[in-house]
Amino acid sequence: MALKLRLARGGSKKRPFYRVVVADSRMPRDGRFIEKVGTYNPLLPKDSEERIKMDMERVQHWLGQGAQPTDRVSRMLEAAGVLTKKERNNPKKGEPGAKAKERAEEKAAKVAEASAEETAE
């Protein structure tokens, strides 16, 4: 059984609240889980102690059993000092999409035409 440490969403519409759970990776996001090991409330300020609460003893136990944290949970565990910080590199993230590039090229062409007309006058 492939275990995951992941977030299960709760709360109402536009008011998210998450439980940090240990679940079988084949189960749905908000479906059946094995154990709840913490909570995460993104609506609280980042410096609030109530924002992320985890039972680190149980987290360590499940990591020892082979549970793999998702990216978001691993970032929380890195911030808590449980996991070593991984180097992440996504150079394409800040790059605009294909349509945005086309629009930028069209705009540059229009500006070039306008400046050529002004110099011709």
Automatic annotation (TrEMBL):
Keyword Translocase found: no
Record-linked Gene3D superfamilies: 3.30.1320.10
The entry's keywords? Ribonucleoprotein, Ribosomal protein
**Which GO biological-process labels does this protein carry?**
translation
Q: Where is this region: Disordered?
A: 81-121
| Annotated GO CC locations | cytoplasm; small ribosomal subunit
Instruction: Name the InterPro entries on file.
Output: Ribosomal_bS16 (IPR000307), Ribosomal_bS16_dom_sf (IPR023803)
Q: Which family does it belong to?
A: Belongs to the bacterial ribosomal protein bS16 family.
> What protein name does the entry list?
Small ribosomal subunit protein bS16
Organism of origin: Rhodovulum bhavnagarense
